[in-house]
Amino acid sequence: MIALAVFRMAGYVRSHRVVQALLLMVLLLAVMHGNRAPEGAEAVVLTDSAALIIPVLAWAARSLLDTEPDQQRLMSATSVGGSARELSAGLLAALTACTGLAALALAWGVLLGLTATPPGPVLGAAVVLHGLAVLTGTALGALTSRVILPSPALSIMALLSGFLGMLILSASPLYWLTVPVLVWMRAANTDLLLDRLPELSALSLAWCLIGLTTYAWLRRTRP
Q: Which stretches within the chain are classed as H helix?
């Protein structure tokens, strides 16, 4: 399974699809951190970063999972001993790619987006939120990948609509029905991020696991 995950990562890099996600990420970060934030705004800037990179991470996960042709995916499942291992290898590769992009976003924000070094607790919260962004992006990308939505147009529309729906729901009193990305941002703006981090992390993690479980369940009926 590990070998297959490495194989998929290598295919993703060699196909140059990784360049698309990397360019999108660099463009987003350049706009987001065009000016250094003043001292005291560290939590706000890093939380915004974690929330806004989710669609780019979802695009990266979707692109990685779609790199391998369908027939090659069937061969891979046979070679590693079953579809469960093939599915796990794909998710592991997608998580790895998204983690690299999220690490770039976090490092860019800390080194180039802030005037002052963030306090330890704020930096720790930012790491947690970027980790949740990785899981969220991977789940959204997997649910809109070709094996679930064969039409590229529908896939892209579903990815963007999924993120937009996430924003709309998290801006409402029903924020608990999705990953509450806007609640992350609101908590950071009101200096409540550290106090609410356990609650928001648990809720976000639960929905990420639901998304990944749904992907695994849908894959049962597809080759």
A: 2-14, 17-32, 42-52, 54-67, 70-80, 83-112, 120-143, 152-170, 181-189, 193-219
